Amino acid sequence: MTLRLAAVLSAALLPLPACGRGAAVRPNVVLVSIDTLRADRLGAYGHDRPTSPFIDSLAERSVLFEQAFSQSPKTAPSHMSLLTGLYPEAHGVENYGESGNARLSASVPTLASVFREHGYRTAAHTAGGNVRGELGFDQGFLVYEDRGTEEAIFARARAAIAEYADAPFFLFVHTYAVHDPYLPPERYREQFVSPSYRGGVKSTERDLFRAGAKSFADLHREFWENVDRDSAEDLQHLKNLYDASIRWADDLVAGLWQEIEARSLGERTLFILTSDHGEEFLEHDRFQHDSLYQEVLHVPLIFRLPPGSGIAPRRIREVVSQIDFMPTVLDLAGIAPPPLIQGRSLAPLMRGEAPADSLVWSQWPQSQQHALRLERWKYIQRTATQPAQEELYDLQDDPGETQDLATAEPAVRERVLKRVAKLKAASAGVSRAYGHGGEAALDPEVRERLKALGYLGGGQ
Question: In order of start, what are the domains of the chain with their CATH numbers?
Fold first, then answer.
């Protein structure tokens, strides 16, 4: 590392994580990401509906972080931060657009590449879209599958567990089961959707095609065109569909854990569940996930550790970030993190040691939006317009972010802006050190999948 880059990184006041206590037998690591899952719709995080019986039972045997926050409201930058320990402006990967799609630089270590260097078998089974291998998500994976139905994805993941049972492995599983348009299978819809609903929202593929959708790419458009934003009934219907989708995802995850137990791997497997971002239901007059408010950034983070880890199940209230994920997992596996990582290991916090800085720095560079949580304060900046738009909230007194204090608290604003400048400078330094990764391809099949999820053609 050059002296100049070292100075830039230290200026951000983000401590490098220390390597954890080495494990005699390195654990298998299974990472499950349920795309678009906001934390507060799980029973383990306080939801009062039975959306997540398996995840709730898993949480009781795990370390659960009550306040874990995403680095981005979008799938690609958020997941890449999860897998590299770098902020979006440092790794440079964004959601697919019509052009200019940057691939992760080959010089950036990923969680998979580090595990592979240490003798792990590495496999990923994902739903594609904005976690396609072409964006660099395949770096370090011996196997990277990014297509198929949700059931097929989990079936392949279960098969991978069976195949790799005799050696340490890292398995990444990703699903869009909870992503809009919310179209859970009938058996889950029946559990949550009111039979008396008479609004215009179509909640099955059959109904959407009958209403005019001509391809799967049309489903997203047709779904949202029938939503009446002023209807309380439609709003509740959307939440019901969302909850039903979570219940579907819960069963998919349960099947994965059952495979681990069937192979007698539970004693040496670190099983982690999280999400890339949450979802909005008009808390700030929005649907989907196009902002940096708490309902979008607050995600579940649950570590089920092997019984011999020495870390007891507990709930942790301290604020943590997704960039902390990679160094934490490596620490728990007894592996040193890469030198330029921007996150810090949470393993000491799991062991009851003093918490570190509670800063959260979230970004959506494509839309020129940034948000910094510093202690009790939350600052949001949008620079796509001139002058830039700014918001400042006191999360201690106003957790719902309803009272903008940007004008009323100039001293706080200035203090936060100084930290923002340091963070941006640090990420720019890391980005220069790693270099560019070239452009990712956007073929017709990927384009159609992205349109079906609302990411191209006027969607999110």
Answer: 27-355+444-452 (3.40.720.10)
